[in-house]
């Protein structure tokens, strides 16, 4: 596999120039909230890779981490909006928390799991205080119903202590220190004689919901004499659960952590497989796919009403639900592979989606995959929600679609465009030509050609789909040309006749598997390539199995149970 690794390093090509048609997915929408970053990061999908590791007794390439115990740094990272809401719901059954509390900062980085995101600015902290107050009212009622001893007047001290300790254990994902519980108990004891048990309980709950022990989770580990550290069982339990289910550890995982039964890779894998088999088991990977593909922004996409009548909010909700259900069905199937995600002709189809796209078949049961008989409709990148996300209100966006393939699936490094670049207005251009012809004419100039040569060839095959994801043969009355010529490092190089062939050769390549493995590692670890000089070398050590089997759930488990994740540098 060294060839693929080395090629990914070579694909990290920096070219000057410009390009029009910035992706309308995660890249566009992140711009307005970029100030919420603590420090700037490179794109998690950018190809800043190093050469591969050595085989046998070969001399490691310069800059390689081969033979060294390269590890990521210890980490503290905040819960994202989904994890915040799921933790509240798991601790206080029936209590709902907002799922967009940190929406701005969740979208300010490549992944919402990134450790460098600063979620608590003035705006979000103010919102958090208000939300904690609202949640505490409902949560106090839940605890009063669950614990009869709290209903006594006054409530017994040992009862209050046990309730506070149990609640803190769930919210914090680890037992609270004695001095912390003493503080909570003191807060309750001071308030209860004046305002009663229920209101005093609210005060203690608000303190917990505003505590860093709840809002952040650590991956610091226990230090060893050599300066490295190994994650504690409670840190491991939280990492497993939040990564795979977007929620805190369940009762079994909490018990395993309390009993130090998460020390071996076998123990970790057993719990991971159990979580993946649960009803919530695909939730974490769905979150990864939503952020990786940019579908997380689909709800914000608008289309011109005159050009696309019927593209309503109701239709968008149906399309997004279909996309997520398709991903989940494939991930829960016997073949949960990257290749199938990229090339399957089967989708979960609701009535609204089928009606808008003219598909004759719909799923007869929830989560049922059914084949779609359209020659170029293959895999998630041709799902209407994905295509509509990477398009404008009227026009398609082959640059954005090609940027996704080259940047996210093949790890090409493509510099950002100049600030004054804009997508061409064909009405102003006045030329009777397809969008492809317009863009090829503009992008052929020297200042633009170097960057667009990396992206556009991977976008032309998707021109058979309009800006709402429907199949088309004509663009302004002229035939659409979906042919192209592409070069995948270590893989196929040559002519391409449409999206289906492009997706086939991409999905078959080692380069795509190493690149997606890199994104999985970044999402799970909370770090980007700039977090450690050996980031890409560490990924290489984890990517071999994924190159061989392409199994996405298995790769999540492999990363979570690996020394590269469980052990940290000084």
Terminal residue distance: 30 Å
Q: What structural category characterises the helix and strand content?
A: mainly alpha
Strand content: 5-15%
Tally of structural domains: 2
Mind describing the biggest β-sheet?
A: 3 strands, antiparallel
Gyration radius over CA: 25 Å
Element layout with pairings:
Layout: H1 2-11, H2 26-30, E1 75-78, H3 81-91, H4 103-106, H5 122-146, H6 157-172, H7 178-195, H8 197-209, H9 212-215, E2 216-219, E3 222-223, E4 229-230, H10 233-245, H11 251-258, H12 265-277, H13 283-293, H14 313-331, H15 338-343, E5 346-347, H16 351-357, E6 370-371, H17 384-389, H18 398-409, H19 426-429, H20 435-443, H21 446-459, E7 474-475, E8 478-479, E9 483-487, E10 493-497, H22 499-508, H23 510-525, H24 535-549, H25 552-560, H26 563-566, E11 567-568
Antiparallel strand pairs: 1-2, 3-4, 4-11, 5-6, 7-8, 9-10
Helix pairs in contact: 1-23, 5-8, 6-7, 7-8, 10-11, 10-12, 12-25, 18-21, 23-24, 23-25, 24-25
Task: Briefly summarize what is shown.
By secondary structure, the chain is mainly α.
Characterise the protein shown here.
Strand 9 and strand 10 form a beta hairpin. It contains 26 helices and 11 strands. Residues 1-63 have low confidence and may be disordered. With 570 residues, it is mostly helical. Helix 7 (178-195) runs antiparallel to helix 8. The chain has helices at residues 2-11, 26-30, 81-91, 103-106, 122-146, 157-172, 178-195, 197-209, 212-215, 233-245, 251-258, 265-277, 283-293, 313-331, 338-343, 351-357, 384-389, 398-409, 426-429, 435-443, 446-459, 499-508, 510-525, 535-549, 552-560, 563-566, and strands at 75-78, 216-219, 222-223, 229-230, 346-347, 370-371, 474-475, 478-479, 483-487, 493-497, 567-568. Helix content is 49%, strand content 6%. The strands form 5 sheets. It has a 3-stranded antiparallel β-sheet with strand order 3-4-11. The chain folds into 2 domains: 1-74 and 222-570, no CATH class; 83-106 and 116-217, no CATH class.
